Automatic annotation (TrEMBL):
Domain Ketoreductase: 5-194
Name of the protein this chain belongs to: SDR family NAD(P)-dependent oxidoreductase
Family to which the UniProt record says this protein belongs: Belongs to the short-chain dehydrogenases/reductases (SDR) family.
A matching Pfam family: adh_short
Compositional bias ranges of the Basic and acidic residues kind: 254-269
Region (Disordered) residue spans: 251-275
InterPro entries per the UniProt record, alphabetical: KR_dom (IPR057326), NAD(P)-bd_dom_sf (IPR036291), Sc_DH/Rdtase_CS (IPR020904), SDR_fam (IPR002347)
Domain of life: Bacteria
Length: 275
């Protein structure tokens, strides 16, 4: 019997992460899903069936990540980590109710950037002890966003968090090369996931104007297909790959925003600016 390969998928209980978990299962890899919501986790396991595992926890908490890594190593050899956990946020630097909340800025950066790094550091330490297969011991895929490159008005916190994920990709890949571990980041455009399903139609229509080809929102499996390729292709390393159908996000400003010193809040929720 061949040894079991496992993969940790943070945020694997929903959206892009769930699609990645589906692809992993189909290729014979056991996905271990890490997410905070237990109900979401149970629902994901029902969707996935098979041998998927759910571990409740928060990517920012070292003990939770350690528990998920233990679960993955208990079931087989951990060869892949796909970081999809993340939270959207939209808030003006100076909004109608005053300056941007500093706590909220720190929370978003903590969830999206510090959380990703927390998983990377703990997972890499485990994978570094693997027997190499071919020329590698493991692969880490992180999730950024177009906001890392062209963040819209209202996205300072979210863009900063995702920009950090992009910026650490190369140094992580360089450092972990000695352990035969690759590090790659994927930057998705607009994908139809539960995170954006709640966005008001008007806000979605605004983003629709930026679509190029194909003129549709991505299916989570389009993202998962790229992640599957990255996991398989040993020459992809230290790079951020956009998967966005040629979208370049506009400023997110309306004309009155540049005329008036008093900015109106965008009508959208944080989710509208999650890309
Ligand atoms: N959808 C898009 O268009 C789009 C575009 C660009 C980038 N992204 C990025 O892609 C990733 C996935 O987004 P999505 O659209 O698939 O969102 P989603 O459907 O809301 O899924 C997010 C997942 O992350 C988990 N999560 C959030 N914070 C967590 C934490 N601190 N610890 C552990 N798990 C946590 C959520 O579960 P719990 O809440 O139960 O913990 C959920 O499973 C995010 O990083 C997002 O920023 C999405």
């Amino acid at each position: 019997m061949s040894p079991t390969t496992t993969a940790l998928v943070t945020g694997g209980t929903s959206g892009l992460g769930l699609a990645v978990a589906e692809r992993l299962l189909a290729s014979g890899v056991v996905p271990v899903l890490l997410g905070r919501g237990e109900e979401r986790g149970r629902a994901a396991l029902e969707t996935l069936g098979g041998r998927a595992v759910f571990v409740p926890g928060d990517v920012t908490r070292p003990e939770d990540v350690t528990g998920a890594l233990d679960a993955a190593e208990h079931r087989g050899t951990l060869r892949a980590v796909v970081n999809c956990a993340g939270v959207p946020h939209a808030e003006r630097v100076v909004g109608r109710s005053g300056p941007h909340s500093l706590d909220r800025f720190a929370e978003v950066v903590t969830a999206n950037l510090v959380g990703t790094f927390n998983v990377v550091r703990l997972a890499a330490a485990r994978m570094a002890a693997n027997e190499p297969v071919g020329q590698e011991r493991g692969v880490i895929v992180n999730t950024a966003s177009l906001a890392a490159f062209e963040g819209q008005a209202g996205q300072a916190a979210y863009a900063a968090s995702k920009g950090g994920v992009v910026s650490m990709t190369l140094p992580l890949a360089r450092e972990l090369a000695g352990s035969l571990i690759r590090v790659v980041t994927v930057a998705p455009g607009f994908f139809a996931t539960p995170a954006v399903a709640a966005v008001p139609a008007a806000a979605r229509a605004e983003l629709d104007r930026d679509l190029v080809h194909p003129r549709r929102w991505g299916d989570p499996d389009d993202f998962a297909a790229l992640v599957a390729h990255v996991l398989d292709n040993p020459m992809i390393n230290g790079e951020t790959i956009r998967v966005d159908g040629a979208v370049r996000m506009s400023s997110g400003l309306r004309h009155h925003d540049t005329r008036n010193t008093h900015h109106r809040e965008r009508p959208d929720t944080g989710e509208a600016s999650s890309t």
